[in-house]
UniProtKB/TrEMBL annotation:
UniProt cross-references to SUPFAM superfamilies, sorted A to Z: Isocitrate/Isopropylmalate dehydrogenase-like
Species, as recorded: Limnoglobus roseus
Sequence ranges assigned to domain Isopropylmalate dehydrogenase-like in this UniProt record: 2-326
Highest classification ranks of the organism: Bacteria, Pseudomonadati, Planctomycetota, Planctomycetia, Gemmatales
Name this polypeptide is given: Isocitrate/isopropylmalate dehydrogenase family protein
Keywords on record: Oxidoreductase
Entry keyword Cytoplasm: no
Keyword Oxidoreductase on entry: yes
UniProt similarity note: Belongs to the isocitrate and isopropylmalate dehydrogenases family.
Length: 332
């Protein structure tokens, strides 16, 4: 079995290395196929997302990816946005679940953020109208709107979830979110056995802060999903613990919600759990269910025991100490 590995920038190499060690310790027999993306690739190849990287992922179909830094002000478009558009990874899925031993104000959070990954305000269509005036276009198409909502409902059906909340701002963006909302309602009709709820995005944020346990599957446009993902990560222990996946019809790229964390990069302080859990999602996706479940169980046990935890989790450990614990807590 071959998995593509994009180490990424900043803390990327530190946390993806930890994930490789844990996947190996879980007994998975696989080969990693390295591919370049990010600042490193820009310096090496003059291009932060070489075509060869996209080709390699298309060939092997499954990748684990560390965070990539997009150089700001150098004329580059976001590497992540281009990767997701280039491979048509239209569905971003972020499971947000309360973890044992992590001190947060809520218990029993168990929700899924499904984010449209290819258009919306991140379509990348921006231009200067006249000096001092710029426009960013918010693209919503019927096809993409329907397929992401259908993805959310299919996900709910397959995972025994009961409700899908469509988040929008259709009262203000009457045309774009109006279309999205119409599409969501039409798709919801195909799933009469799953509850459908439509809610303004600001309202959703309020309720996420007041009582996140009331949500099940949330589905929304690209920018909303980016913001809400970080908010939801904060409900269960922060960016260091929440995994993610980007799915398309042909390929899947697994990556944490967090970025390259330049403030702690290279210091051995990064929490690898988010990427480790992304790797567990990847294993589950390719049918290595047992290894994925054992890694998840080890994460739970490690957090519960509270030994060797990184600073973001209130410990005084390092990437190395927590990785050692994660390996030690893998049961046969
Ligand atoms: P960030 O997610 O990198 O960091 C936000 C805060 O969370 C920082 O204080 C950081 O130290 C902390 N943090 C993040 N991950 C952590 C971990 N695993 N363990 C402990 N602490 C962690 O967001 P920021 O600073 O806005 O972005 C930095 C760079 O990352 C930017 O260039 C951005 O474009 C890129 N980025 C890349 C993503 C990707 O490749 N998927 C996603 C988000 C941002
Ligand atoms: Mg983000």
């Amino acid at each position: 079995m071959k998995f593509v590995m994009i180490e990424g920038d900043g803390i990327g190499p530190e946390v993806t290395r930890a994930a490789c060690e844990i996947v190996k310790a879980a007994g998975v027999r696989n080969e990693w196929v390295p591919a370049a993306a990010g600042l490193g690739a820009a310096e090496q190849f003059g291009e932060p997302l070489p075509d060869e990287t996209l080709e390699t992922i298309r060939r092997h179909r499954v990748a684990l990816k560390g965070p990539c830094t997009t150089p700001v002000g150098k004329g580059y478009r976001s590497i992540n946005v281009r990767l997701r558009q280039g491979l048509d990874l239209y569905a971003s899925v972020r499971p947000v679940k309360t973890l044992p031993g992590v001190k947060v104000p809520y218990t029993d959070v168990d929700l899924i953020v499904v984010r449209e990954n290819t258009e919306g305000l991140y379509a990348g269509l921006e231009h200067v109208v006249v000096p001092g005036v710029v426009e960013s276009l918010r693209v919503i198409t019927k096809n993409a709107a329907e397929r992401i909502v259908r993805y959310a409902f299919e996900f709910a059906r397959q995972h025994g979830r009961r409700r899908v909340t469509f988040c929008h701002k259709a009262d203000v963006m009457r045309l774009s979110d109006g279309l999205f909302l119409d599409c969501a309602r039409a798709v919801a009709d195909e799933f009469p056995f799953i509850q459908f709820e439509e809610k303004p995005i600001d309202n959703v944020c309020l309720e996420l802060a007041m009582d996140p346990t009331r949500f099940d599957v949330l589905v929304m446009e690209n920018l909303f999903g980016d913001v809400v993902s970080d908010l939801c990560a904060g409900l269960v222990g922060g960016l260091g613990v929440v995994p993610g996946a980007n799915f398309g019809a042909r390929c899947a790229v697994f990556e944490a919600v967090h970025g390259s964390a330049p403030d702690i990069a290279g210091k051995g302080l990064a929490n690898p759990i988010a990427v480790v859990r992304s790797a567990a999602m990847m294993l589950d996706h390719v049918g290595e269910r047992d290894a994925g479940a054992r890694i998840e169980a080890s994460v739970a046990k490690t957090l519960q025991r509270g030994i060797g935890l990184t600073r973001d989790l209130g410990g005084d450990g390092t990437t190395a100490t927590i990785t050692r614990e994660l390996i030690a807590n893998l049961t046969a």
